[in-house]
Write a structure and sequence with these properties.
Layout lengths: L9 H51 L11 H6 L22 E5 L2 E6 L7 E5 L6 E4 L3 E4 L5
Antiparallel strand pairs: 1-2, 2-5, 3-4
Length: 146
């Protein structure tokens, strides 16, 4: 009687591993795209929340916007009434920093560096409110000219 060996041969194992590697190679890039889409949606929600908080701050402070600077969100956090619950962080920022903010006269802009991580707001025209940008930031503003 012949003895039958049970198990896989080396070739069969290598073929299975190659198929798994191919499937992983196909699936991983789509996860990055899904993560970017989720972060993009998060940024849009955060920016809308911050925009509402800035407008509310202005209403409660004689039409003055929060002062520019690294702690501008703290002004919203510590205001009365409290307008935000925590400092909101830009998920696209390489250094995981808070969203950026700029105010010029009666116009403001709040922005994220965007998916490509290179966007920024250079200035706001104080007469027209036109936002001058570099790269592809994601932003909200009280200006009609964006």
């Amino acid at each position: 009687m012949l003895a039958v060996k049970k198990g896989f041969t080396l070739i069969e194992l290598m073929i299975v591993m190659a198929v798994i590697a191919i499937l992983v190679g196909i699936i991983l890039p789509s996860f990055k795209g899904m993560k970017d889409e989720a972060n993009y949606s998060k940024v849009l929600g955060d920016l809308r929340t911050l925009q509402t908080a800035v407008e509310s701050f202005s209403i409660h402070n004689d039409q003055k916007f929060p002062k520019m600077g690294p702690d501008w969100q703290n002004q919203l956090l510590n205001s009365s009434p409290k307008l935000i619950d925590k400092i909101m962080i830009d998920p696209f920022s390489p250094t995981k920093s808070p969203y950026q903010y700029n105010v010029t006269g009666s116009y403001y802009v709040i922005w994220s560096v965007g998916v490509e991580k290179n966007g920024k707001i250079l200035s706001i025209n104080p007469q027209t409110g036109k936002v001058i940008q570099q790269g592809k930031p994601i932003f909200v503003s009280n200006s009609d000219e964006q």
